[in-house]
Amino acid sequence: MTMQQPIQVPPADEAPAPQAEAAARVTPMMEQYLEIKAAHQGLLLFYRMGDFYELFFEDAEIASKTLGIVLTKRGKHQGADIPMCGVPVERAEDYLHRLISAGHRVAVCEQTEDPAAAKARGNKSVVRRGVVRLVTPGTLTEDTLLDARANNYLLAIARARSSAGGDRFGLAWIDISTAEFMVTEVSGGELAATLARINPNEAIVTDALFGDNELGQILRELPAVTPLTRDVFDGATAEKRLCDYFAVATMDGLAQLTRLEATAAAAAVTYVDRTQVGKHPPLSPPAREASGATMAIDPATRANLELTRTLAGERRGSLLDAIDRTVTSAGSRLLAQRLAAPLTDAPAIGRRLDAVSAFVADSAAREDIRSILRGAPDMSRALARLSVGRGGPRDLAGIRDGIIAADQVLTRLSELDQPPQEIAAVMAALQRPSRELAAEFASALDEQLPLIKRDGGFVRQGYEPALDEARNLRDASRLVVASMQARYADATSVKGLKIRHNNVLGYFVEVTAQHGDKLMSPPLNATFIHRQTLAGQVRFTTSELGEIEAKIANAGDRALGLELEIFERLCGKALAISDDLRAAAQGFARLDVATSLAKLAVDENYVRPEVDGSLSFAIEAGRHPVVEQALKRNGEPFIANACDLSPAPAQKSGQLWLLTGPNMAGKSTFLRQNALIALMAQIGSFVPATRARIGIVDRLFSRVGAADDLARGRSTFMVEMVETAAILNQAGERSLVILDEIGRGTATFDGLSIAWAAIEHLHESNRCRTLFATHYHELTALAAKLPRMFNATVRVKEWQGNVVFLHEVLPGSADRSYGIQVAKLAGLPPAVITRAKSVLSKLEAQDRGQTARALVDDLPLFAVPTRAATEAAPPSEAEQLMEAVKALQPDEMSPREALDALYALKAKLPKS
Ligand SMILES: Nc1ncnc2c1ncn2[C@@H]1O[C@H](COP(=O)(O)OP(=O)(O)OP(=O)(O)O)[C@@H](O)[C@H]1O
After folding, report:
1. Quick count: other Cβ atoms within 10 Å of Cβ 236?
2. Which residue's alpha carbon is nearest to atom 1 within ligand 1?
3. Is 546 annotated among the ligand-binding residues?
4. Does 808 lie in the same domain as 718?
């Protein structure tokens, strides 16, 4: 996390406080700069000066370091040089991107009047400037600043303290680039998992929360956290601020929010409003996420299972990368969202699966729709840019093409026989946007469109007569210029005379140096006025050229003005139906996900899972979705394996599989593949298996792989124990738990004992569906005592002293780890291998297995102590006696009191 100074953001319409002291000694421009800067502390100030944004003082030092640009000086302030650096306006987005990625936030300050107007007010007047926008990681809209395939969430976190312990948190998250707005309320225990799921780019909290020790840990996991003053999180004004934003009298019709959710939601919209400085990006009304509606997955499990990123931080190699066959950015974003939040409602999962099934069955429809979607624009982001005034002609075209694509998709979908509910809902959404709007946009917009509206030339000829007239005038004048060139060449007898144009001189006559004198001497100098002499050319103007130029400029300005008016009009029409357009955009995304999951299922030979409310977990011939694809690229097969953790008929809860097997046999792969299959099933995807029946998993836990977390001062073993503790404390009957090599990071007997006790606890207390892989073969003996524990092993073959990995999971247990054979394969020196073998045979002679079997017989089965017993056991007599002695203060006692105390102590002794 980047730790930030609190931002002071004045409300959009409030003038920044003047700095009287600074004003006394500084130039008027610096005075203006300091005023604006003072009102935007904690942000880098991009101060517009002509074609550059300049940064001064510490901002300049930070920016020059982060961007690798030159630090210069400009004038003095209080006797010292003012450090300065600048970025050209046309490249500003690139620089903004780099500053935001480095965790900074930027206030963009523009000139708000024409420099000529400032001059007219007096020679010393400074051009008026104002901050038009705050650029922060969570409030971006530009394509160039955003990852098209990921959502960009701003998250507000509001806390309600409870004296009984157990704080509650209201969360509201917004993607202003797509208008999504969600809220929920969670307990302190659920906070970390929920934040990991939302994965915001920026979080906002109160100053108090920012400095809170307990929360600090969790907040540090986030990429950027911005502390704000308390008023932003004021519960009393929350409803009113939300109503103002949505321009309604009461929020009741839009959303039913708890007070805490409303507080967070109001904080989020207040921040959006302030960063966009008065512009009002349209947002969907806050949608409330019911708690428990999605599978809870804590941050460690998400990271370990490499859902959206590998442990090395790459998208490539993650589950998302392996299953993402979407063809649009919005589809890719939706798939990532679903993967982050698998559902727990079996009928809802069934509806998603029905849509996928339909496209598995009808491959022609699937491919046709995918090819239409491939060309469809990202309507929601185009709309968002238009709504904050940062859109261009191509965004209007995006809306037009989106509606056209909607019609094409509808035509194709209407050929489906009885579309399932999910597809019918998509069809309804695609019907919503007005077709007249698309027709109007089609007649207004030209074929080739400039990126920015100020370049003009995007309105089609024939759309608006006044515009055509202005353009004709401009173009006719240009023709006049061309004929003038011929006339001047004739009159001067200089064949090579040219009329050219640049931004400094405007139109000018240019001849080579050798003809310059001729034009500067009588009689020609009466017509040609000298302007500039360069090394090879001399430039002139004429009064006739000046007049034509003014005409061209006027006609050009008028044409551009008219185009901009048309742009605003069209933009207004699009925004007026933004809800319909967003619904259609969301429909595209849903369709993209359904067809892409169908394609995945067909390409990779997946099966539709049966998902229900039972506690089953039965996978036939399951495969690891990522490893399988990696092996396939090398032409190697993946060995499928079954897994059954379903309760036996007479038992209520699930099984615990203890998986032993040699190193490199495929234990971790097996564990992960089963977790991933559950997860894929619950996002509504087909799964890599020949059959899968899964009773809803409400929480997924994994403790696999090991990595130090030195930044948090935790060793590998400590990380392992913290994660294991979370599982043992939280897993319930509906959870799915995978544990890989618990206890391996410490001394053998400590590790074995911890693993032993953990298995007993999982079996007796958590009673969750569990896969437990280990190299402690002694643990297999526990199966004799634990009725729902089942031993499984991964088979290998020994061949000519080497081990051959078969990757087959079978009932039974391994007797050896073949660690030395694997070490040999890895290239350890032969001398070390030979020595290791002889040490091993000595150790094996002591036979630890014997001890374990004896332990199973000797130790009573793990008794799960009740919580009350562990938490508040009454003190023993000895402890009571000790406390009483400690409480005595002999120096302050009279002899009589001392004697009484002695009797009292004696009375406390147990009577025997
Ligand atoms: N079912 C399978 N089919 C084909 N190859 C597999 C299979 N399972 C695993 N592998 C291959 O074997 C390699 C080792 O697998 P994995 O890491 O799961 O072994 P492990 O038993 O957990 O090893 P260790 O105990 O050393 O951690 C994988 O990288 C993969 O390439």
Report:
1. 9
2. 639
3. no
4. yes
Mean pLDDT across 3-26 = 47
Q: Is the CB of 622 under 6 A from ligand 1?
A: no
Nearest to 232 by CA among 260, 271, 184: 271
CA distance 339 to 152: 16
For residue 529, the domain's CATH number is 1.10.1420.10
Q: 797 C-alpha vs ligand 1 centroid, how far in Å?
A: 15
**For ligand 1, is residue 335 a contact (CB within 6 Å)?**
no
- The verdict on residue 786 lying in a domain is yes
Same domain, yes or no: 130 and 252: no
Residue 123 gets which letter from DSSP?
T
pLDDT mean over 207-217: 82
Question: Which tokens sit at 670?
Answer: 């097996």
> Quick check: is 118 in a domain?
yes
Residue type, 802: N
668 lines ligand 1 (CB under 6 A): yes
d(CA 248, CA 241): 10
Is 665 annotated among the ligand-binding residues? yes
pLDDT in tens, 122-141: 777 888 898 888 888 888 77
List, in sequence order, every residue forming a beta bridge with 288; answer none if it has no partner.
183
According to the annotation, is 663 in a ligand binding site?
Answer: yes
Q: In which domain, by residue range, is 483 found?
A: 465-567
Kindly give the number of the ligand 1 atom that is closest to the alpha carbon of 817.
25
Q: Which amino acid is at 165?
A: G
Nearest C-alpha neighbor of 152 from the set 143, 161, 160 = 143
Q: How many domains does the chain have?
A: 6
840-875: burial string, b at 16+ Cβ within 10 Å, e else? eeeeeeeeeeeebeeebeeeeebeeeeeeeeeeeee
User: Above 80 in pLDDT, residue 878?
Assistant: no
Mean pLDDT is highest, among 287-291, 361-365, 701-705, 880-884, for 361-365
Looking from the CA of residue 775, the nearest atom of ligand 1 is 25
Q: What's the one-letter identity of residue 228?
A: L
Distance from C-alpha of 4 to C-alpha of 18, rounded to nearest angstrom: 24
Determine the pLDDT at residue 220.
81
Examine the domain organization and report whether 555 and 507 are in the same domain.
yes
Asked if the structure places residue 376 within a domain, the reply is yes
What mean pLDDT do residues 664-683 have?
A: 94
44 located within any domain: yes
- Look-up: residue for tokens 């002679």? 845
Collapsing DSSP to helix, strand or coil, 899 comes out as: helix
Q: Is the Cβ atom of 771 under 6 angstroms away from ligand 1?
A: no
807: Cβ below 6 Å to ligand 1? yes
Q: Are residues 381 and 495 in the same domain?
A: no
Higher pLDDT, 777 or 589: 589
Is the C-beta atom of 643 inside 6 A of ligand 1?
no
Query: Looking at ligand 1, which residue's alpha carbon is closest to its atom 9?
Result: 666
Report helix, strand or coil for 575: helix
| Of 68 and 347, the one with more pLDDT | 347
At residue 781, the 3 state secondary structure works out as helix
Q: How many C-alpha atoms does 134 have within 13 Å on its Cβ side?
A: 29
| CA nearest neighbour of 686 among 353, 366, 420, 370 | 353
